[in-house]
Amino acid sequence: MRWILLLCLGLSLPALADLDYALKPRLIAADTWLLEGSTDNFAKANGGNIVNTAFIVTEAGVVVIDTGPSRRYGEALRQAIAQVTPRPVIQVLITHHHPDHALGNQAFKDVPIGALADTTRLLHEQGDSLAENLYRMVGDWMRGTEVVLPTQALQPGVLSVGQHDLRLLALTGHTGADLAILDQRTGVLFTGDLVFYQRALTTPHSPGLAAWQADLDTLQALPWNLIVPGHGPVAADAQPFAQMRDYLGWLDQLLRDGAANGSDMAELIRSPIPERFAAINLSRYELTRSVSHLYPRYERAQMQRLDTRY
Amino acid sequence: MNWRLSCILACWLPLAAHAVEVDPVPSVMWAFYHKQLLADAPFVFDARVKLLAPPFAEDARQVPLEIDARAFKGHVVRILAWAELNPLPKIVDFQPKEGVLPWLALRIRIEQATPLRAAVLTDDGIWHVGSALIDAAGGGCTAPSVVRSQPGWEEHLGEVLGGRYPRGEFSRVRVQVAHPMDNGLVSGIPEFFINHGQLRGQDDQVLAELELFPAVSENPNLAFDIEAPGPTRLVLRDNSGNEFDAAIP
Ligand SMILES: [Zn+2]
């Protein structure tokens, strides 16, 4: 039995060494670097690199925004930063508790990791099961990954690092605790997962679509000139906001109409997706998930008490 | 192949287009369930029995399932559904009478990726079997109860939310019943679930009989399509003898 195990280990080691995220930082604004992930779903082929992470090289040191899906990603991100600048990483900001944004924290244990207090609470409550689920989907890439909680509770307001004044916003639409960051020096707006672009948004922890729409209003009103969404390409125009509003509005109406017509969940999941969302990756998959997350609230809101025994 | 079935396949050609002998889903359990639940009775795999579920379970404790046997309207005696790889496979035994369409929607728990089946017994004695495959991360049957984690849940036991939704020729009746549907697989909690239901129309005439099994999710969600005029009554009983009654105007 033991030799079989050894054989397996021997066979899997070279494969493990091939698991390279090949992160290529791209300069998107002054001092500002993006690591753009794919708009696909978590898969063994991409190691969970479906997310955008970024870093800002300030005079005082480097600020990292989100650490990626795994320990291996976090380490690769750190190496990628070192390729660009000799300055030390001095601050990590986590936009929200989802595993693709926060499971690279292990590589930044020596740095203050800041997040909203509720993000840390959610990561504490759900981190292990979220990580387990990611293991199931991306496999070996996750090896050695453990949840590391943020060490610093962020308050909304301005955080100054070097010459960069970072305006921190505490919002709620995607997970109940969503940090958005506007770099007031460059006008780059890091939206976290409050904005998905060309990739269907995800709703497993959303407090509701109305809150999300309100957050989009708040974000769009900021003096930004470049949007870095949590997933999908950066944009210098308001197109990501328009797409988000359109999709959220459609989803809300679909669920509302479904509840009013007495549609069952299985029927709603098969609803046609409008042609105008054809370019949005994974919309059928995420609709299936969103109906499961959100529809029970819509159903209950319009049902009547019918029991006669009480 | 059973002689009677061969005869039907030979004589009734249109059937051949829908009914196949080859199992449409990969399964090692079909023969077992055919014997266990259908007593080896004649059957066909039949695409006209639509078993509609998402391709994967986003929440393995609340998987939506729609069983549509309207292609056999007027000839359906019984509809049996199960999840082959569940520790407790049986889901529902539904017997729609005159005035209720052979259609049903509900939510179930699954423990792992599994073939799902809905077997529809028609009045000629043949089971028409609809199939689907669903993927799942798993654990839906052994997850701790959400209902029981809510303080004071006992006070809400048997509360029914729902409504009637006109659909032209018929009306959709939906209900959601507050009940933990304990399946006995979560440690320390014995089986406690709604096991029987009856839909009644005017003059208390029975419109459908319903047997539920613990694969049905907590706070069961049920939907029926009813041609008979309202009001409709739903009478439910659990395995502890509690009775719940709902009136759908
Ligand atoms: Zn997210």
From TrEMBL, chain A:
- Residues in domain Metallo-beta-lactamase? 50-231
Say if the entry is tagged with keyword Signal: yes
Database matches in SMART domains: Lactamase_B
One GO process term, biological-process aspect: antibiotic catabolic process
Q: Which domain of life is it from?
A: Bacteria
Q: Does the keyword Cell division apply?
A: no
Q: Which InterPro entries match?
A: Metallo-B-lactamas (IPR001279), NDM-1-like (IPR050855), RibonucZ/Hydroxyglut_hydro (IPR036866), SoxH-rel_PQQ_1 (IPR030811)
Going by the UniProt record, its keywords in alphabetical order are: Signal
Q: Where is the signal peptide?
A: 1-17
- Please name the NCBIfam families in this protein's record: SoxH_rel_PQQ_1
Q: Give the record's family classification.
A: Belongs to the metallo-beta-lactamase superfamily. Class-B beta-lactamase family.
State the name under which the record lists this protein.
Quinoprotein relay system zinc metallohydrolase 1
Q: Which organism is it from?
A: Pseudomonas rhodesiae
Classification of source organism: Bacteria, Pseudomonadati, Pseudomonadota, Gammaproteobacteria, Pseudomonadales
UniProtKB/TrEMBL annotation, chain B:
- Sulphur oxidation protein SoxZ domain segment(s): 167-247
Q: What does the UniProt keyword field contain?
A: Signal
One Pfam family, short name please? SoxY
> Is-annotated flag, keyword Signal?
yes
Taxonomically, which superkingdom? Answer: Bacteria
Q: Which SUPFAM superfamilies match?
A: E set domains
Q: Where is the signal peptide?
A: 1-19
Q: What range(s) does the Ig-like SoxY domain occupy? A: 35-141
For this protein, the record's NCBIfam families field holds: fuse_rel_SoxYZ
Q: What is this protein's name?
A: Quinoprotein dehydrogenase-associated SoxYZ-like carrier
Give the species: Pseudomonas rhodesiae
